[in-house]
Amino acid sequence: MQERQLQIIDILKFAARAHPTVEIVSRRIDEPIFRYDYAGLLARSSQAAGALGALEVRAGDRVATLAWNTHRHLELFYAVPGLGAILHTVNPRLVDDQIAYILNHAESSVLVFEKSFIPLVERLASRLTSVKTFILMSSAEDHVSGPIDALCFETLLATQSNRFDWPAVDESAGAVLCYTSGTTGDPKGVLYSHRAIVLHAMAAGLSGAFGITAFDVIMPCASMYHATAWGLPYVAPINGAKLVLPADKMGGEALHELIANEGVTYTGGVPTIWTMYLDHLARTGDNTHALQRVVIGGSAVPRAMAQTFAERYGVKVLQIWGMTELSPTGVIATPTPALLAHGESYAQDVIWTRQGRLQFGVEVKVVAEDGSEVPSDGETSGALLVRGPWTIRRYFKAETDAVDDDGWFDTGDVVTLDAEGYIRITDRRKDVIKSGGEWISSIDLENAAVGFPGVKIAAVIGVPHPKWEERPILIIEPHDNAVIATEAVMEHLAGHVARWWLPDAIHIEPVPLTATGKIDKKQLRQRFVTTN
Amino acid sequence: MQERQLQIIDILKFAARAHPTVEIVSRRIDEPIFRYDYAGLLARSSQAAGALGALEVRAGDRVATLAWNTHRHLELFYAVPGLGAILHTVNPRLVDDQIAYILNHAESSVLVFEKSFIPLVERLASRLTSVKTFILMSSAEDHVSGPIDALCFETLLATQSNRFDWPAVDESAGAVLCYTSGTTGDPKGVLYSHRAIVLHAMAAGLSGAFGITAFDVIMPCASMYHATAWGLPYVAPINGAKLVLPADKMGGEALHELIANEGVTYTGGVPTIWTMYLDHLARTGDNTHALQRVVIGGSAVPRAMAQTFAERYGVKVLQIWGMTELSPTGVIATPTPALLAHGESYAQDVIWTRQGRLQFGVEVKVVAEDGSEVPSDGETSGALLVRGPWTIRRYFKAETDAVDDDGWFDTGDVVTLDAEGYIRITDRRKDVIKSGGEWISSIDLENAAVGFPGVKIAAVIGVPHPKWEERPILIIEPHDNAVIATEAVMEHLAGHVARWWLPDAIHIEPVPLTATGKIDKKQLRQRFVTTN
Fold first, then answer.
1. Radius of gyration (Cα) for chain A, nearest Å?
2. Which of A47, B149, B215, B452 has the fewest CB atoms within 10 Å, i.e. is most exposed?
3. Is the CB of A206 inside 8 Å of chain B's CB atoms?
4. B352 is catalytic
5. Is A512 part of the contact surface with chain B (CB cutoff 8 Å)?
6. A434 has catalytic annotation
7. What's the pLDDT score for residue A480?
């Protein structure tokens, strides 16, 4: 057989050949919606590659982005790896110190950024030790170079041919670099190879995973800067699906507009944005149009949200769990005949409460503290280890592997696995509350609390306790205008969890979120543990 | 990223873990139907690997099979490559000389065979230079060692553990060896690597290809000895689909029985068997039960067959084209929005007359005689070249590559490619008829002839002509009891093809087929060209 290398650019070449007229629709920053197709994407990616080559970007160089889900960002998803260089997607929601650290650590030499980030980039510029070239994602007419002498994205492309002689790149070469902001220590870089991205994109298209077809219209609402938006910018073209890119407009009305006008069938993102979307529909009385499936990840799906999608609008909700380190999909909650054999209501409950089922290529082991595998009974929890051809081995520039001698990566999650292969995350290892020698799942408590009317976000952390070692406390952020009585919450919880799981205290106040939209428990611990 | 190797055994390990109770149902030779599941398949494949290991089969050794689509054959699809050895599937429909040549050329040391082939194996045994061990696929009770001292498959397995410590195998190592009987010269071996098989199985599961889900029940009627039955023994478990194996029972009633009783949703094979199946339904008045899709390959699909499936039974017919050298899927005729945009009847026509559309991982180039690409207009024909990570590079033991310097493999087919990416095979290069400087497509003429009532098989070959260089003649094999008037056929053809394409002669007589069920044009040429 040919040892022909798996290369990212071949995904786009395929789509431009087999699905040339399939549309890509993108919001932009301060510009009207942009439309083209896969043939157009290849043409503009070729121009972008030509432009970067002319700027002396060479194989292995890092080209960083501070960008939203836009077509220009998408073009760099192909142009940069296609050149043999590394696309370094930076999370713009991090604090300045972290962004500067990440750019310097990656030694990125080019920084391409949206207009939204002009103040950020101008503020950071003097602290960036490796960036030599700044490129603003702007059209020629409204370009402003500013104090950093930013080049104009569209001007650079305009001078280039729409055909590019893509070099042969080894499949093990780095293609995309993404830093994950750990809860401790500095952010760590995960460098995806061409091979990992292509394999992941193939696997993620299968029916047991995203199950995308050429008839789908995909709107990725997970951020492209965060673990490549679940790989959808690569999964969609392999399957010939239309792509709709919402930029940073995740408000309910903005999402509804794209879903309705573009015939979106398939979308996904964190729960927060779907709350806004459903609020918009409830307010306006409009419906979900062609929408069929919403994949929700990042944090647990509130049951009421899944029910509203399913029962009011006939839209299927699928949970997903992944990590930057897994390229990034881990499990996804698609149904199987074995699950449905237990009856519709049992199956529905599993789909809505499990993060997903086992996927080909992501080998899973759930182990007790002594390293032995726990039974797949859906009850016994253990540490989740994974390995596979598109799982991380070593963080960028790290000197030791992130996996054990057998290749297992410890996800840091505590899970149960049931006989049908569905995984439920019961906690992050560091968030689990150890009370009287037993474990209390912070996630289970949070899920129970979110079921109480008016609760927008619920966060549970453990605080030290002289007798029990740790005890849970609950912090609740209410919906606008909701008034919540803590006694009523406690009564509600008593109906859902064991008596000894009930929190020792309930605080009603805003819950801080991290740059990736998760509950910032580090900050909560600083506030509640040290002052307690 | 991990450079974790793509290994065939990981497909089965995944299915046994994620879909342990999904059924595998197999006919056997002279034994009742056998049923187990993916957990059972892993257990018995482990036993088979143990047994082969005990027989001193080592990494790289060839283990040959003369076997039908049965569960024991399936077990060897995993056990042999899992050991690091090479499964060599031999086509039992070849003539003795070819089978002996293939086994000796491959230097296979073990030959595992079904009871049907006892006479064949006993007849060949003395001519086999490398086979040291014969294993009969039999149960202990009815085992007969015979003059070749055959071991008993079930006895060998019974002594082994159902857990096996699978070795790590490099993904570029050979896994499955399959000889393709060229029309000229000796058969040539295509050695699939682990990497090629796993990549092909992932790609073939995508919605644009087979599009298999965990809710499908797959019955592969293409032979497992012939290019791994389109890879379905590997595609099904990745997607968690139930497998139904018909052994060699391809008669209409036998197929109907499995389709009806096992809930088959998805099947495929050469047109001949579907003729028998539809005849059975017409005769009995029964229906297609849960059947949704029939994939037809090997030769062109008669339009009447596609229509009957679609209009009478609501079953979708998809054409497929592949080659042993492509692992083996090339293109498959799944619809796209771009195709449907031309209207339902145009789309239906394309689906039924094109072999398929472009697939991810199979790069295609259609070239004129001067090597330049022909326009993708659905009209201009050219030679079909392919390349990709699971396309052949070199035949087994060959000293030169089968591809050009850029990796392109010449399929020997003449095709057109249209703007929507659908390919129509107009001829094998060697079958095309060159008449007066222009090309006549033998396949187009055959398709037109098959549309005439009573025609079972139509074969067109070129015969030398003093003025025109070559002229077509048509050989027709009628259905049982059909009486065909050649003048009426000629009149029918005149309504479908250009005047100068009309054959110079029509012969009514049986059409010889090759061991893979295709029209044997070599034999026809010997008969008509040399005696003309």
1. 23
2. B149
3. yes
4. no
5. no
6. yes
7. 86
Residue B432 near chain A (CB below 8 Å) = no
The one-letter code for the residue type at A73 is H
**A176-190, A453-467, B113-127, B272-286: which has the minimum mean pLDDT?**
A176-190
B325 is catalytic: yes
**Cβ–Cβ of B206/A238 closer than 8 Å?**
yes
In this complex, the residue of B4, B240, B360 whose CB is nearest that of residue A14 is B360
Q: What pLDDT is attached to residue B347?
A: 95
- Alpha carbons A201 and A251: distance in angstroms, whole number: 28
Instruction: Tell me how close the Cα of A241 comes to any Cα of chain B, in angstroms.
Output: 10
Tell me, yes or no, if A122 comes closer than 8 A to chain B by beta carbon. Answer: no
Instruction: Indicate yes or no: CB of B387 within 8 angstroms of CB of A2.
Output: yes
**Is the distance from CB of A312 to CB of A305 less than 8 angstroms?**
no
A114, A325, A446, A470: the active-site residue:
A325
Cα gap A23→B393, rounded to integer Å: 36
The shortest CB-CB distance from A2 to any of B207, B239, B393 is to B393
Rounded CA-CA distance A137/A118 in Å is 10
pLDDT, average across residues A34-45: 98
Whether omega for the bond prior to residue A328 falls within 30 degrees of 0, making it cis, is yes
DSSP, residue by residue, B11-24: HHHHHHHHSTT-EE
Answer yes or no: is pLDDT of A474 > 90: yes
Yes or no: say if A123 and A92 are a contact pair by the CB < 8 Å rule: no
CB A519 within 8 A of CB A457: yes
Check whether A182 has a pLDDT greater than 70.
Answer: no
pLDDT of the residue at A183:
53
Q: Residue B376: how many CB atoms within 10 A of its CB?
A: 19
B-contacting residues of A 50-89, CB under 8 Å? none
Q: Is B456 in a helix, a strand, or coil?
A: strand
A 362-391 residues inside an 8 A Cβ radius of B: 363-364, 387-391
Secondary structure letter of residue B308 according to DSSP: I
Neighbouring CB atoms inside 10 A of A327's CB total 32
The two three-digit tokens of residue A379, written as one number: 């009850």
* Residues of chain B with C-beta less than 8 angstroms from the C-beta of A19: 336, 338, 421
**pLDDT given for residue B1 in this prediction:** 65
B22, B203, B338 ranked by CB distance to A202: nearest: B203
Looking at beta carbons, which pairs linking A249-254 to residues 24 or more positions away fall under 8 Å?
A249/A27, A250/A221, A250/A276, A251/A276, A251/A280, A252/A276, A252/A277, A252/A278, A252/A279, A252/A280, A252/A281, A252/A283, A253/A280, A254/A27
Give A65's DSSP letter.
Answer: E
- Mean pLDDT, consecutive 10-residue stretches, chain B (532 aa), reads 87 98 96 97 98 98 98 98 98 91 98 97 97 97 95 98 97 96 77 96 97 98 95 98 97 97 96 93 97 89 91 96 93 96 94 94 94 94 94 94 94 94 90 83 89 92 90 93 92 90 94 85 86 46
Residues 6+ apart with CB under 8 A from A487: none
Is the CA virtual torsion A355, A357, A361, A366 positive or negative? positive
Task: Please confirm, yes or no, whether B420 is among the known catalytic residues.
Answer: no
Region A96-122 average pLDDT: 97
> pLDDT tens digits, residue range A211-235?
999 999 999 999 999 999 999 999 9
* A398-434 per-position pLDDT tens digit: 999 999 999 999 999 999 999 999 999 988 888 888 8
Chain B residue numbers touching A358 (CB-CB < 8 A): 14, 17-18
Query: Are B130 and B112 spatial neighbours (Cβ–Cβ below 8 Å)?
Result: no
What ipTM was estimated for this complex? 0.90
| Stated pTM of the model | 0.91
Which of A18, A238, A390 is opposite residue B421, by nearest beta carbon?
A: A18
Mark yes or no for CB contact B392/A203 under 8 Å: no
